[in-house]
Amino acid sequence: MDTKSLIIDIATNLFQRKGYKSVGVNEILKACSITKGALYHHFPNGKEELLIACLKNMDEAITTDIEDIFKRYQTTMEALHAMIKKLVANFDREGTITSYTFSSIVSETASLSEPVLNACSDLYTKIQGIYSEKLVADGFSEETAYSIALMMTASIEGGIMLCLTNKTSEPLKIISHILPNLLKEL
What we know:
This protein is mostly helical. It has one domain: Tetracycline Repressor, domain 2 (Orthogonal Bundle). It is built from nine helices and no strands.
């Protein structure tokens, strides 16, 4: 793995576990075993530029995984159930779901720059797009699919945060049963 990728991977993990504001540049340097010069060589604008790179990296990983799941299943309900089942299994196994959410970073960095907010917004937009596309394939109008996709994104992100806060996968298990039933009623 090259130095830049190593920095992004380690910083992403640190930001997710401890929060953006709680992780200092020196902690990143130590965890990566690199010099300050090496960090600023790859990220001349510092920690915020690194955060944006981490968000883009997460964007790619999360959307690729969601796209893969949604392509494997014929309906939105089946794909949604499979995705949430995977999240629950990850939480039950690891006690966290850091690799699948960036909500904690978003809430903490809302007061940061426009580029950070845009990187976060792009990921949510991509996730909603994946959901919406599948819902349209299921026969929903584009307008209805957009609204349902927004609700799905908010429910799953909120469920992940509740799992982390309450230290139980129960919120996602409930969402896994409720969301598909709501889709049936529409």
